[in-house]
Amino acid sequence: MTHPSAKRICLGEISTAHGVRGLVRIRVYGDDPQAFSAYGPLFISETSDKTITIKMKNAANKFWIAEVEGVADRNAAEALRGTKLWIERDKLPEPESDDEFYYEDLIGMTVQTDGEGMIGTVVAVENFGASDLLEIKPPSGSTFYLPFVDEYILEVNMPENVIKVDIPLGLRD
User: Does the pTM of the predicted model rise above 0.85?
Assistant: First the structure.
């Protein structure tokens, strides 16, 4: 699968300030929080050219404490609340096999069931706190969410651009 070099992946989000010396708490969306520092400057939006440099410090429950270059007090750190941290897609390592992928790569994939065939297209991957969800847009009607768990996701076929699912009764009604 080819990826436009301008495509960006969101690695995490600054949730709030931590302490009085300009540290922040970051909600990390990936598996390797220490990679934040290795990537160098991170973009502060999907399209902006503005960047910030993050130095990860240590884990604190579900967050990571980090230092932001040039931020030295709580007020400046608090001003960054809600800032999402982005990296160019081509800076990330390519998945090693067809059953590995970045969630961002699922957007645009066709969703199929065994009984119905094509039921829609993935328009987003969200997480509102409980688990990851695929937002699926059917050919007509409103989008709906499907939990991204083994019980409902039968196969993710990256080469064919297809996700095979089993949709529980009542989910789309």
Answer: no
